[in-house]
Amino acid sequence: MAHRGEVKVVVRTVVPLPEKEEKELKETLRDILGKDKTILVEQKIDQSIMGGLVIEFGQKVFDMSIRTRAKQMEAFLRQPFDI
């Protein structure tokens, strides 16, 4: 795949991405990874992320899920604060 300029991207969402959003995602990834790349998207449905999306390619993971945001907020709120 690499020698053909193809990049496999796994996208996890709660519901399938509409065609228009998948196309916009491919264009954004092409801007990031290089215009000469062909982006191959594999969609996976994952109810556990609660919303948002998780994008994985190569060794990189971009986690923009509601589950992760909620965990971050909980950790922040549990920190002691000084008055």
Automatic annotation (TrEMBL):
Q: What is its main location?
A: membrane
Q: Tell me which GO cellular component terms the UniProt record holds.
A: membrane
What is the superkingdom listed in this entry's lineage?
Eukaryota
Q: Does the keyword Membrane apply?
A: yes
Alphabetically list the UniProt keywords: ATP synthesis, Hydrogen ion transport, Ion transport, Membrane, Transport
- Give the GO molecular function terms: proton-transporting ATP synthase activity, rotational mechanism
* Location(s) in or outside the cell: Membrane
Tell me the protein's name. ATP synthase subunit O, mitochondrial
Query: What's the source species for this entry?
Result: Aegilops tauschii subsp. strangulata
